[in-house]
Amino acid sequence: MSTLTERLIRRIARSGPISLAEYMGLALADPEAGYYTTNTPIGAPAVTPKGAQGDFVTAPEISQMFGELIGLWCVDTWDRLGQPRPFQLVELGPGRGTLLEDALRAARVVPTFLEALSLHLVEISPTLRSQQQARLAECGVTPQWHASLEDLPALPMILIANEFFDALPIRQFERIDNSWAERLVGLDADGESFCFHLGPASPLLSHLVPLALRAGSEKEDPGGQVVEVSPASLWIAAEISRRLAAKGGAALIVDYGHAEPRYGITLQAVRGHGRWDVLRDPGAADLTAHVDFASLAAAAQAEGATALGPVDQGPFLASLGLAARAERLVATAGPQQREDIQAAVTRLTDPAEMGTLFKVLALCQGKAPSLAGFSA
Question: Which of 227, 195, 196, 223 has the alpha carbon at shortest distance from 210?
Fold first, then answer.
């Protein structure tokens, strides 16, 4: 039994069940035993998980093309915003630094972009910070690290959040007649294992549920009348918007999720590229849930930002020139490399892979000009 498990069991035994958001927050970010603070979660580059290290593989690890296109999107966005100087390029949860390494390499085609920026990484994992520092050592820009979005300087910014919001803590609510009850994390009868408990039903909880789902019916919800909400995600989207409103800029959010609020449990745990019990051994596995893009957009718009999208990742990358970039790489590649490049394009864009499950949302200041990848 891990130390975090022991601490949580003692706490719940003493004070009663805790919210799922609190459980996730500790499982992922506890300073002594949290998943992100004590593990190397992201595997080595691989088109398929077979033989990969870590627990999961993100789009930048699948192909350099992903980061390169994001980098060119940032350059193009900076130009559309009037080339602010100075400005900050920010990534939330930069993983191993792979996306930024590829993005900054692609951005060298516009030297004035690199000259104008300062690089800021919001990262809580000491292990990943070390990997980011090593990977970005030759990028030509000295990174600065922050534990929170609130610690960023007050400058115009272009922000990237790739597979960041899916790992933020969520709460789950179950509808009971005209009321809602929160699913909490408690203990089994033996007092040694975690299980879900249902808190008291209250109509007052309805204000936490997306408006589109508050008046739903059982017929509309065959999956069990459970709604997932991420207060942390909504706060961060709002904070990004406040910063954009104050100093200008744009943000690009790429993640897996749904365009509109919906019923159903999407929370999952991943370890070794496979499923894991969500309540087993907190801190040993990654915990994620699908992102509600409509709610993110609404939270940002409430603070004055303009939201573009979400659009599916496949068409978004295609509009940025993924096919042309793949052709250029294939032209100088060997047989195995050509096969890998083609497999990466399929993985990133095919509807059966990441093409439609992953979506892209842009936030920008006020009535900013249209941005690449988003139709007018």
Answer: 227
User: Average pLDDT in the 156-174 region?
Assistant: 97
**This prediction's pTM:** 0.92
| Lookup: tokens for 13 | 């035994």
Lowest mean pLDDT among 110-114, 126-130, 185-189: 126-130
Cα-to-chain-centroid distance, residue 43: 17
Half-sphere exposure of residue 81, counting CA atoms within 13 Å on the CB side?
27
- pLDDT at res. 357: 96
State the average pLDDT for the chain: 90
Q: Answer yes or no: are the C-beta atoms of 19 and 171 closer than 8 Å.
A: yes
